[in-house]
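Try it yourself: sequence plus adenosine-5'-triphosphate, in.
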Amino acid sequence: MTPTSADQANTLRLMRLEKSAHTNDAPGEQTSISGTTPTVIAIASGKGGVGKTSLVANLAVAFGEMGHRVLALDGDLGLANLDITFGTHAPLSLADLVDGTASVQDVLRPVANNVYLLPACSGRYDLANLASRERYELLSAIDGMDQHFDTVLIDTAAGIGSNSIGFAGAAERVLIVVNGEPTSLADAYAFIKVLATRCGVERVEVVSNMVRSTLEGEEVFKSLCRMAERFLGVGMDYMGCVMRDRMVSRSLFMGQPLLVVAPTCPASQSIRQLANRLSRQQRTARAASGGIQLFWRRLVASEASQ
Ligand SMILES: Nc1ncnc2c1ncn2[C@@H]1O[C@H](COP(=O)(O)OP(=O)(O)OP(=O)(O)O)[C@@H](O)[C@H]1O
Ligand SMILES: [Mg+2]
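Structure, out:
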């Protein structure tokens, strides 16, 4: 069969990405504080607008403050806005990496103390709908930076599209963000269902966002638990809640992460507590983990079975 021009374009892009995967694209020469591979955490939700991107940016800052070297990866490949949340404009993005016009080193941006961003771009339909193999090659291109990071945070797109499920299904930890609205709970349930059935994920972690009290946060978690544990058999761990706080939105207008502009506001305090809890568990779970390598392997395995 004669290859189409689309096939040829895909093959060319894959060849460029494979080449990029074998160059040393790490920032500086430092190795990670743990001396091992980083923990990969995907932040997902199902429903849009529940606070994933805000949480990724501010968790990254919180981890950075704790001395972790953090890579924040914008996995919302077609409608990216993690760069805006960090208050930076990224001239280059993962689109340039996929197109072969930039290396990982060119695209990577320092955005906060100990935090590097791999920004995506907005308005590229092809990126929002990457083929499995392309997504794998894109991630492999980043693989060379293993020893330079302790934590990789992936901001995923809303919905149950292949990019979101692909990133979450392959991550070592999946943090589901919910708020109390029935639609948020229903969509989180749907997301977890697809994650469990297509990728065999047996356990997720949950954070309740935009709550007015810790009690409300626990109630939101219990509501999701009742559905997901009973009907899906997926284990759920409650990581805590983030308070509803108008400073979250104001920080966007101020062009800096919340933790920078309002370090002591209620939402900042809850995000620091969340980062602390995640970090403590990260250290105890390390022995059983394969870090970023495991992440890529599971990605391939999960997608090969589809
Ligand atoms: N804890 C909070 N308190 C108040 N507002 C919040 C909080 N968290 C997020 N928001 C607001 O909710 C809106 C959506 O946030 P964000 O963009 O982070 O959500 P998202 O889940 O990434 O959305 P999308 O699915 O479209 O990518 C923003 O206006 C943000 O300022
Ligand atoms: Mg978002």
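One thing you can check immediately is this: The longest helix spans residues 266-285.
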